[in-house]
Amino acid sequence: MHHRRTAVLAAVASVLLGTHALAQTDPLHSWNDGAAKKAIVEFVQTTTTQGSSQFVAPEERIATFDQDGTLWVEHPMYTQVTYCFDRVPAVVRAKPELANVEPFKTVLSGNREAIAKLSMDDLLKILAATLTGMSVDEFRAEATKWLDTTRDPRWKRPYTELTYAPMIELLKYLRANGYKTYIVTGGGQDFVRTYAEPVYGIPPEQVVGTAGGTKYGYDKSGKPFLTKEPRLLLNDNDAGKPEGIHLMIGRRPHAAFGNSTGDRQMLEYTKAGDGARLAMLVLHDDAKREYAYGPVLGLPDTKVGTFTPALYDEAKKQGWIVVSMKDDWKRIFSFEPEWE
Amino acid sequence: MHHRRTAVLAAVASVLLGTHALAQTDPLHSWNDGAAKKAIVEFVQTTTTQGSSQFVAPEERIATFDQDGTLWVEHPMYTQVTYCFDRVPAVVRAKPELANVEPFKTVLSGNREAIAKLSMDDLLKILAATLTGMSVDEFRAEATKWLDTTRDPRWKRPYTELTYAPMIELLKYLRANGYKTYIVTGGGQDFVRTYAEPVYGIPPEQVVGTAGGTKYGYDKSGKPFLTKEPRLLLNDNDAGKPEGIHLMIGRRPHAAFGNSTGDRQMLEYTKAGDGARLAMLVLHDDAKREYAYGPVLGLPDTKVGTFTPALYDEAKKQGWIVVSMKDDWKRIFSFEPEWE
């Protein structure tokens, strides 16, 4: 109720103050003027203006975006990892023998300290048990239901509302200029595909992610279906990102956006192409409006998803643009009023 | 010279007789009137007319095409297999120790009888040696050069000109009606991607094929590149086709086109979806203008690429349309005059 009233007031204020009309004229209106916004606009102009020496043919306009921490919140735990933990009780109900087997026993105990100590190996067992063994249609239905009904504990909103307004504007701005926008995520390809189209305007065929194999078979009535298997085809992190881009897209991106060491090779690969290339890293330095952090919590024994000092140094050296959430973004979330 | 003169005469005749203008009004002008053409037009109308009970939203309009034998000639040997055999001398020059190792020794001997007796295992060794171990850029350059300079022995034309005019019209007709067209081929994904855009109007990101892994690394100057590895990720034949469609597209097609048992599961999977679905098989029954055959030659110990009696029976049972090249197609190749 409170949120709705705020939104109505914001809309009224926006009309009275004329900021709505103003915002419409700038496709990147949630970005403050600064080096990051300037670099984006210059890149788009130089690659899409006929006659420019760095003009890029429309079919070659590919832009790739990491998801967690780049397009939406990844803190304190990747949304998909939360999903997998939440699915454990249902998995154990279906296979009661797992109740006394680790790591399922610990997850069911609800003991946060013990859960935080689970190893990467334990986590992989939980992912395999909760993400495979069902048909792709069953998986899609389960994930969709969970996303519709689960709320982030801090903002009390569905995870799919915790997208960054400036990045949504950037996706639309690039598409309006002929760029094909892709998600290239370390997260599960099937998971992200369940919501990428309504949330980001990115269709399933433009989502590249960590992917397992499927197995074709028939049900009792002879109808064919695909079962998700625990056989990893693509680990779409680190070097897996350019490898995944080659497998799924087959062209080198002209622009790439990330926020962690897992995106380093994707940015390197993008910048190694000829002509104008844009590489950007989102820096989480806004403890008040979102989070300020280095390592991502919730993933044991791993450095996945960290903006390390070494990455910062490489960005400076390679000419990658570092986007400060605190300084470069007028607002963080799409649900926030425009004038905030 | 002869061909050029024929083309000019055809153009003149076309203008004089008014057939050119007539042809323009029918997007499927190389198709004879009959059950196949009727089924295509009805499918497109019923799925794209607003208010139709079987209307398909534009983003869901996916059509998948097998390549060899469906979009271009596969006889007497898959073009890519010819490429691999042609590459063997260069591979042996780079690694002279292979000259006395089978199956390379037999290939180098030029003894056609012995070559025809090579096993599937031998063939896989030849594919691995000629398609992997180089960078993706080197591979693309080699394949492009070969396609530009090699001629089909029967038609004395580049292989890329041996595409079926009626199928090219079908691709364009579907795209003009909002369908996204994909190639889903048992052939190598990287190989087909080198020419699919100019030849079929299908961009690399819409080519799904048999795919190996790549490995990300750096050259001496520190520039990143991808090396093709002999590690199979997707065998895009048979059940591998729906599995590949799920991996690379993530949606079930509304229309699928093939010509062999390797396409059976793709057609089944397509037809198992709700609403109007179109499944078609091209039957090679035109010995005069192209070929009439069952099994494809040149692939030892395998039944890949055959239009078997069992497949014909299944097509009839499942409501798949069988396209007779002899009866349904006015002309076969795009290089033939329109009025032939």
Give the largest interface pair and sizes: A-B, 34 and 34 residues
Question: What pattern of helices and strands is seen along the backbone of chain A?
Answer: HHHEHHHHHHEHHEEHEHEHEH
Helical fraction of chain A equals 40-55%
Class computed from helices, strands and strand pairing of chain A: alpha/beta
Percent range for β-strand residues of chain A: 5-15%
Report the strand count of chain A: 7
Largest sheet of chain A: 7 strands, mixed
What is the CA-atom radius of gyration of chain A, in angstroms? 21 Å
List low-confidence stretches of chain A. 295-303
Mean pLDDT score of chain A, rounded? 90
Spatial strand sequence of the major β-sheet of chain A: 4-3-2-1-5-6-7
Q: How many helix segments of chain A?
A: 15
How would you describe the shape of chain A?
globular
Assembly classification: homodimer
End-to-end separation of chain A in angstroms reads 19 Å
Summary, kept brief:
Two copies of one chain form a homodimer. Chain A has 340 residues and is of the alpha/beta class.
Describe the model:
2 copies of one chain form a homodimer. Chain A is α/β, with parallel strands linked by helices and 340 residues long. Chain A contains 15 helices and 7 strands. Chain A has helices at residues 2-17, 19-25, 35-48, 79-94, 104-109, 112-116, 120-131, 136-149, 165-176, 189-193, 196-200, 240-248, 264-271, 309-318, 325-328; strands at 62-65, 180-188, 207-218, 224-234, 255-258, 278-283, 321-324. A 7-stranded mixed beta sheet of chain A has the order 4-3-2-1-5-6-7, sandwiched between helices. The longest helix of chain A has 16 residues, at 2-17. The first copy, chain A, is globular and about 65 Å long. At the A-B interface, helix 10, strand 3, strand 4, helix 12 and helix 13 of A face helix 10, strand 3, strand 4, helix 12 and helix 13 of B.
